[in-house]
Amino acid sequence: MLLPPVIEHLIAEFARFPGVGRRSAERMAFDLLSAPHQRVAALHAAIGQVEKSVSVCAECGYFAVDGACLICAQNRDRESLLVVERALDVTAIERAGGYRGLYHVLGGHLSPLKGISPSSLRIDALYQRLDAGTVHELILATSPSVEGDATALYISRNVERENLRITRLGRGVPMGASLEFSDAGTLRMALEGRRGMDSP
Amino acid sequence: MLLPPVIEHLIAEFARFPGVGRRSAERMAFDLLSAPHQRVAALHAAIGQVEKSVSVCAECGYFAVDGACLICAQNRDRESLLVVERALDVTAIERAGGYRGLYHVLGGHLSPLKGISPSSLRIDALYQRLDAGTVHELILATSPSVEGDATALYISRNVERENLRITRLGRGVPMGASLEFSDAGTLRMALEGRRGMDSP
Fold it and tell me: In chain B, where does the domain assigned CATH 3.40.1360.10 lie?
């Protein structure tokens, strides 16, 4: 017995989520179908709401609700611009606190093997924002991986502008980590990036 | 910055799925929000379709589409009734093939600690089906766990009827498993359930 198309469609949509395979998608669909009817209605309504009111900010690439960007519409320091790969990274940095500037979401990292070239990312939009001349510090916070580093390097080589300082996130051992279980690359970075005991 | 209520609602609904924590639900929501608009629309439509057309069969507890049960409406052997805990189990058995009878989905297993008593499951509905007298074999296929076994035992003690054979699934080493990595309980079951080389 094959499942009816209406359930197959739902499973196929669930399987699009990252890390959700066919089996997990099936489990999700069956869980939803076995749940009280209100839960299906609530999920349906929540997705409908998001579909209707959430869009992507044309300026920074983060989310806008009813047309107002959750970040750009705030009163923030417009001289700092922090470049990340994904919207999720913005939420992580906001949650950590301490940064008051604006963001720029690229939408991924360069990956020639997967066909992701500069034109697939929001890099031109970044140049345009820098052309306005308001930004004085560009913080490249792409992911600490080979592709993330390559993306940061590519951008840093193409945005040389007067009065623009280009920085990247500090690298080293994360808070709470044990040196014993840190990988070699992280330890090398931490040694190279060592600081005086009295530096901030 | 907290996320806007519209996104928080979506995350809360995703987090209801089994095995999906707050972090995974957030990742799912952000993935959906970053996806092309068609994907949000497709998921919304798929859930709406399911909400509208899928219901639970009052007879067996499996799914019905537009009022017709996917199993009961088929031409099947009505003398065998196979009892499972969840709708997902029906799909697994149908996929395996070889069973042509009807099913009865309990909706879980007995668990006094979690407050799941016989009245929380579809056990009374099972008795009613048996009262009709059509069923001649009741196969108890609850999960191979302490709770599943207790549920099967409880049912078998309460359904004694004339002309009703009560059976349960065979237990033993699963196909393709290595004896080395089979747990003690499984090996004991396999030994107890040993059969002559010429038996089916």
Answer: 75-196
CATH 1.10.8.420 domain residues, chain A: 5-55
Query: Strand, coil or helix: what is B102?
Result: strand
Please, which residues 3-42 of chain A have a Cβ atom closer than 8 Å to chain B?
3-4, 6-7, 9-10, 12-14, 16-20, 24, 26-35, 37, 39-42
Residues in contact with A178: Cβ distance below 8 Å, sequence separation at least 6, in sequence order: none
ipTM for this model: 0.79
CATH 3.40.1360.10 is right for the domain spanning B75-196:
yes
Model-level pTM greater than 0.90? no
Q: Quick check: A120 contacting B, CB < 8 Å?
A: no
Minimum-distance CB partner of B54 among A14, A33, A39: A33
Between the two ends of chain B, the Cα-to-Cα distance in Å is 66
DSSP string, B13-58: HHTTSTT--HHHHHHHHHHHHHS-HHHHHHHHHHHHHHHHHEEE-T
pLDDT for A90-117, tens place per residue?
A: 988 888 888 899 999 999 999 989 999 9
Which residues of chain B lie closer than 8 angstroms to A24, CB-CB? 19
Token digits for A19? 């890390």
Please write the tens of the pLDDT for every residue from A125-139: 999 999 998 999 999
CA angle B28, B29, B31 (to 5 degrees): 65
Residues with Cβ within 8 Å of residue A34, at least 6 apart in sequence: B56, B86, B87, B107
| Cβ–Cβ contact B84 with A under 8 A | no
Q: Please state which CATH number belongs to domain B5-55.
A: 1.10.8.420
Which residue of chain A comes nearest to B38, CA vs CA?
A51
| pLDDT level of residue A34 (50, 70, 90 thresholds) | confident
Q: Do B7 and A47 touch (CB under 8 A)?
A: no
